[in-house]
Amino acid sequence: MRAVLTALHRWVGLALALVLLVVALSGVLLLARGPYYRWQHPSFGQPIAAQDRAGWPAVLEAITRRFGDEVRTIKVPQPGMHVFQVWLADGSEAFVDARAGTLLDRWHPTDRLPALLFDLHVHLMAGERGELINGAIALLTTTFLVIGGALIWWPRRASMPLRAVWPRSWAPGALLRSHAAVGVVTAGPLLVFLLTGAGMAFSASVMPALSRLLDAAPPTVVRAQVASDGRGHVPWAVALARFDEAMAALDTSRRDGEAQLVFITPPGVSGTAMVARVRLPGEWHPNGRSIVVLHPHTGDVLQTMDARREGAGTRLGHALYPIHAARIGSGPSWLLVALAILAGLGLAVLSGSGLVTWVQRRVRRRGTSAHVDGQGRARKRSMALARTQ
Fold first, then answer.
1. Are 357 and 210 in contact (CB under 8 A)?
2. Exposure pattern of 35-56 as b/e (b: 16+ CB <10 Å)?
3. CA of 40: how far to CAs of 33, 98, 104, 112, 292, in Å?
4. pLDDT at 189 over 90
5. 225 band by pLDDT with thresholds 50, 70 and 90
6. Cα–Cα dist 347/21, whole Å
7. What is the DSSP letter of 233?
8. Does residue 290 contact residue 279 with C-beta atoms inside 8 Å?
9. pLDDT per position as a tens digit, 2-56
10. Residue 116 to residue 119: CA distance in whole angstroms
């Protein structure tokens, strides 16, 4: 049994080594995405003043005037990211100045480093199919590399101490002991980030399963379809006022901060409502999971959903992203950031050291085999020569 587990650990690790290396390093670099944007655009770090928010209707009007029906989602300015971010129908994104409404930048995923890293980390640059493959890789890594590696290490723990994390040399034995020690030290953080990543990749199945398991209360369904009468949507000033009123009605305590508007999905060409994602006080998700739905023509509030009042299974599903992204609430959670860096770098080291050790042993084995073959041939030549003399 141990031999089978060792073989599975080795070959699954070798098959996934390069992919895991890319996913791990891109995940670590994505932790610095906010500081990177603020370095590129210092204005993004400016605080959001009351007069700035008063100017949002004009900026939103400029966005819809510029992009029209291309707009899919708009993220309004947030603390530390004082800019409007727009997702468009062709898969591109754009930054729009939060005060002047001018276009600052527009890009596709391969055009900018943060977007490229995100596409690599989440989708393996293969869209939704790549995200599902990524989830399957996370489950394989959890089963055969993290858990399987710990089971292989346990009987050999006396000869593979945890102090061997830093290898004394590049010899295969030293690298193997380091590989085992790094795997054990990072096993806990790796399980957290691998399982949350897999949970998000398979959220369509995971969310209902969590609900059935914990509370039998299905998630609230957002009803975003409306009868369209051909009129344009209500002015942005009216829509924002309605969103504020609905958020105030949801957030009655105001003891832990104020509700924040995060995303707005404008009405489509026809038949869809105006939907806002809201983060209420106490929500872990940095982008919020609470919802406000407006009628696009009248501005009437059609539906609200307080994510804090969802069932335990749904709330646990909502917690997967903030844990995986190391961002609980409105900012980074430094403990989770430290664990994410440990897990990401640990996974990169495990992938690299496992691959190097395997190559070294293959080279050494071939060298030994060649040496033995050479000795055999020399012995045969000596015997042949002896017979002729």
1. no
2. ebbbeebeebeeebeeeeeeeb
3. 11, 16, 11, 12, 33
4. yes
5. confident
6. 7
7. P
8. yes
9. 899 999 999 999 999 999 999 999 999 999 999 999 999 999 999 999 899 999 9
10. 5
